[in-house]
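ingest -> validate -> predict -> emit
validate: passed (alphabet ok, no gaps, 484 aa)
predict: started
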Amino acid sequence: MRDVQNDSGLPLKPVYSGDDRTTEEPTPGTFPYTRGIHKDMYRRRLWTMRQYAGFGTAAEPNKRYRFLLDQGQTGLSVAFDLPTQIGYDSDDPMANGEVGKVGVAIDSLEDMEILLDGIPLDRVSTSMTINATAAMLLLLYQLVAEKQGIPPEKITGTVQNDILKEYAARGTYIFPPKPSMRLITDLFAYCARDLPNWNTISISGYHMREAGSTAAEEIALTLSHAIAYVEAAHAAGLAVDDARDERSKALRFHTQTGGVTLTAQQPLNNVVRTTLEAMSAVLGGTQSLHTNAYDEALGLPSQSAAEVALRTQQVIGFESAVPYVADPLGGSYYVESLTDSVEEEARAIMAEIDELGGAVACIESGWTQRRIADSAYHLQRRIESGERVVVGVNRYTETDARPIDIMKISPRHQVAQARALKKLRARRSKGTVERHLGEIERAARGSDNLMPPLKAALADYVTIGECCTVLRGVFGEYHPGEAA
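emit:
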């Protein structure tokens, strides 16, 4: 019988037994929560169904958010375009051709007001996948909520705010690691005081897995990055878990189904792939879930594809009976053995990271990036050789595939956004803008928390690009070395 391994390179036996288990796990809802953070998990409440969306200018995704909420979605997840992610306004030459392409263009408070128009922010939790400019997008969100009259404790959601994985895999960084970590800890401190129910960071392994890491590498790198953030918070004088809240021992996590597993060939097959991955997330006890649309290997999801993705979650939640039982696969010889193997390998990788000086040092030396690239290369070799079958790509291909409609973002969005920016700048007070930018620069050159001057500037419609230009002047820009 031939040897078989999964996509993470772990060998798979043909059958598993009780001999493959090392220990029994405690019941769900008890420390260390390996079988779920609640004793009955989804019986009382399903996971948050949070579909990631954003494109064009702010008015278009506002309509999509309202549609998804009307269809039963229970949380928002905002995608931003590349200029917004790396701190360029839509009329900057660096933004040319990218405005609204992979997410919504947000330049100022005016755009955020349009994006969230008519959405009750005291009743909707919002996740924002934003990192280098996370502080500014959070402040814009808070400003809109304040205009709705919502008290700080009612403003709930998450900013990703995980810059280390940007250096490791995704690439939407602006500043070098040290000032970037300062922005993160400034946001921690600000929210502890002013936005008590906001999740200040969502440490993400997803993008490293998308770039090619194995499951064990994904876990090890993610947790090593988490350690680096805690160490940075300590160094900044912040106390971790002042209240010693027992709930902080329970790992809460969001899941997104794979993007790299979607195929442009035979895209309707992606509905099946996403369903399997979504079911895996639920079996694993996720607290919120995004399901990818079947057409995302070709472009941004169409409204009909986004609806199918949401319906996938709803069918699992209401028709499968899986949510009635906490940890349905608990005790499975195979699953528990595989979990033990992943944990053992992840611990070994984390020990290696510690020996190399920690997560930041591994990124700066290029060790992390090389490790991910090596794993990606190994899997791609298996796919290209046919050892790893991808239906519709290297087996069961077809010659007369019917094309599907692809959502395309018109260049008119960039023109419209630039025109709106010109009008915005014309009606602002130049003196007020210059004063705010000067205060941001003074805070950046000193040690004061950057959040208050940024908030004051953004409230007077200073743009994200203008704020980032000042910060670039103080902090500089990050350029990976040859090793990275």
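The first helix runs from residue 59 to 70.
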